[in-house]
């Protein structure tokens, strides 16, 4: 019996081998990409969200003005500036940059305090702030170190409002801050 050979002299591959080989190559590429992406994420950690510093500053100042209104002018907000803070590297990369802040990532905050505020006055103002934030969908976010205070977080932005009263000095302290975010190139704090 004569067998028919292909004209090139090569033996024909079984019909199911080619798709299997292609699938194996694609699976290998997918595995390599997932390992390299996973390694990248492990090294760098989760990326910080991109933020517009002007938008964040306006949002914090508006919240500061609302808190001032809730306190009925007792905290002397007086148009404090929005400050920026340092943010750390994430992931395993943070071990290579211990105590080194990222230049492209900043946090934002507005804080102020006033002394000589009576306990009842502070409590009434705090109740108004707490009620308003709860009605607007903010959630309690941990204990406050003063013993008479609270911290609320906005579920969408991660912004926090922190209000405390310290009995020793009658100090009412307010801090409103936004979490770390990646700022545009050229941002100058």
Question: Can you describe what's shown?
Answer:
- By secondary structure, this protein is of the alpha+beta class.
- The radius of gyration is 29 Å and the shape is elongated.
- The chain has helices at residues 17-44, 53-70, 93-96, 119-135; strands at 83-88, 101-114, 139-140, 148-153, 160-166, 171-182.
- The termini are far apart.
Write a concise synopsis of the structure shown.
The protein is of the alpha+beta class and 189 residues long. It contains four helices and six strands.
Strand order of the largest sheet: 1-2-6-5-4-3
Give the rounded overall mean pLDDT. Answer: 81
Task: Describe the main β-sheet briefly.
Answer: 6 strands, antiparallel
Oligomer: single chain
Strand content: 15-25%
Q: Output the helix-strand order.
A: HHEHEHEEEE
> How helical, in percent, are the residues?
25-40%
Number of helices: 4
Structural class: alpha+beta
Tell me the layout of helices and strands.
Blueprint: H1 17-44, H2 53-70, E1 83-88, H3 93-96, E2 101-114, H4 119-135, E3 139-140, E4 148-153, E5 160-166, E6 171-182
Antiparallel strand pairs: 1-2, 2-6, 3-4, 4-5, 5-6
Features of the shown structure:
6-stranded antiparallel sheet, 35% helix, alpha+beta, 189 residues, 4 helices, elongated
